[in-house]
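Lab notebook, bench 4. We co-purified these components, and the gel suggests they stay together. Before we commit to crystallization screens, I want a quick structural picture of the whole thing.
Request: model the full complex, all chains together.
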Amino acid sequence: MTQNDNRRSWIASANEHPDFPLQNLPLGIFSPVGGTPRGGVAIGEQVFDLKVATTTGLFEGEAADAARVAAGEDLNAFFALGANARRALRRQLQDLLAEGSPAQARLEALGAELLPAAADCQLHLPARIGDYTDFYVGIHHANNVGRLFRPDNPLLPNYKYVPIGYHGRASTVCVSGTPVHRPNGQTLPPGAEVPNFGPSKRLDYELELGIWIGQGNAMGDAIAIGEAEQHIAGYCLLNDWSARDLQAWEYQPLGPFLAKNFATSVSPWVVTAEALEPFRTAQPARPEGDPQPLPYLLDANDQARGAFDIQLEVLLQTAAMRERGQQPQRLALSNTQHMYWTVAQLVAHHAVGGCKLQPGDLFGSGTLSGPEADAFGSLLETTFGGKQPLSLANGEQRTFLESGDEVILRAWCEGEGRVRIGFGECRGRVL
Amino acid sequence: MTQNDNRRSWIASANEHPDFPLQNLPLGIFSPVGGTPRGGVAIGEQVFDLKVATTTGLFEGEAADAARVAAGEDLNAFFALGANARRALRRQLQDLLAEGSPAQARLEALGAELLPAAADCQLHLPARIGDYTDFYVGIHHANNVGRLFRPDNPLLPNYKYVPIGYHGRASTVCVSGTPVHRPNGQTLPPGAEVPNFGPSKRLDYELELGIWIGQGNAMGDAIAIGEAEQHIAGYCLLNDWSARDLQAWEYQPLGPFLAKNFATSVSPWVVTAEALEPFRTAQPARPEGDPQPLPYLLDANDQARGAFDIQLEVLLQTAAMRERGQQPQRLALSNTQHMYWTVAQLVAHHAVGGCKLQPGDLFGSGTLSGPEADAFGSLLETTFGGKQPLSLANGEQRTFLESGDEVILRAWCEGEGRVRIGFGECRGRVL
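Here is the predicted assembly.
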């Protein structure tokens, strides 16, 4: 699994690509022009078509089996195969696409049939989502939001013991680029006793890491923390769109409902554990006085290597910026190291009571804010509950999102002497 | 849609059957001995096999199309067809099975191939569940539970405006008869500051009405209250198993998670709106001073006929009762008239922000308790938060469920001069 950072691809656009070099090879579902949905792999500015590759017989052995399964209309069955199949496919794919590959001429002869331009392809959700769970493990976000509601006691007593999560709506998880409707709903104006009905006035984004579940567990079975990584298929970006005014009125006592279930956007490419391996890091040390995790959440290897150093960025492009040809403006730069719990801890906790996880289930991390305002992952935090409008570089102001605003999430890993690994984008424009 | 209560079936067991007379005809998915899952209809002590019926050509026109779709491995596609197809199938099925049917000899000749004994069939979930939503519309339950946490102010200010609901876990919805594992999880002992980990000591049931969604809506579209009934495929019983000790520790601020996601049981038969039509009733008058529903939740027809008079029963059979050959003991008898909101209001609310509903989605009503202890739909209520143990007739006591306890939910409609319509049972035994 060690990464060879010196290896280059004969596909020129892959080398120095900000997201998709030979060392990344994320999987997704795409349709080429005039074609049906099938599995593919992002490489530079192109997509490697697994359906064409399998019918052409480019793979052998376990990788051939894995590619055949991944070539279908969704990646659920591929996710179910687990890590060994995924790694076998990755190894052969890297060999095929590396500089000096004996297969280069054969692959090049297949041209755009095998390697269509990504710009010509339509991207889809990578899997049929059985269940979607949203966690709340960004401790700075929990602190920031808690402070708005409970200034003296922002973090509830369970926060440092329980990886807090709740069930989200699977039917409205949509792929990057899908427009987002501003939801109608009930809101209670300040000082009023009777709610209004109408479009949300406090529409917000949430910057999250998405986690795709691979192999599942049977109902009633737990997943040991040491095994949890084996149940993860990969990672993406996730925007948990939120209507703050609906949320404030409806969320007691059972949690957010209409405030969140109108849309959740994800980036289309599933970045694998193998691609992220060089950017593993120790779980950040718990502050003095914080409790140890309970034994079912504690594993030495997970503590040592279970976290990631992934940069997370939110950008905004307003309608005015688009009209004037202005680039999106960065609103925040954060990092996955602000997760209070590792993804292995999320998996172990989710299954510990016997809840069945299935290939294609999706987790959101919860909003991953940093401690300072330039790393806040939602407008609720950036504008201090809508009280301090944000001034944009072009003179516009925002408290919450306006119609025509496009929110763009990006993520990448980089390090000294390392090839940069990117997630691509998760975009959504408010209608 | 008017019910002919005088009509009898040539299938003797259907007449005076407590659940499945000719006037009911609920649909489900079953496997006959040695056969694969397929659609069927409960009639008396038998199951009408839709797969055999369609291959034999028993139906004509729209009913034939509907039966072909309903004969598959799940009812999702049938649910998507909507009410007209369902009614066409019902009409021809009633004609085929009624006394005096010209088809009787032909059907009888098919014997147990067409009409296997229900006792010989394995029953499955009727549909692949896309999303499962649990509501909280039993106002006495909300009052009872609220009082345990907030004695002076049991109902939160939003309760009489918002049909409160939250997303549940679809992957662990299971059919009646599936054993239920007692979940492990974190609990905070009284007075402690550090949680324990272990099996739940406060395992409970919740008596609910289940609602199967039929035709869906597109993401971003609402469903008008006047159209909501058209999106409902039918009804079942639902036991929302709950681990109260896990729930108390984890549920703030985002709602129940592991406390509920280990199992949810449903009865296998989908009782249709047509079968329940004679038991429609006006929405119970709101108490003096309660607000009117907001306009998107208000429809004259729904107010006049949107509620149901369905009796709901919980029974318990302990391991000791089984050993001694004792019958299950009734713990509560309640009624769907304790719903503060109608099912049409639940559908309209769920979709009002643009959340996509899909055929095969499942709603739970929330626990439907009556105002008095003999109608409380959970042990949390019956034992006043575990403080007053319940004495069973055989001398046993219960605060919460013990291993080997089997919880049985039943439901039925009856009325002067009316054929009784039943839901069958929803059973689950604690391992």
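The domain at 132-429 of chain A is CATH 3.90.850.10 (Fumarylacetoacetate hydrolase; domain 2). Worth comparing against the SEC data before the next meeting. Residues 9 and 98 of chain A are 4 Å apart (CA to CA).
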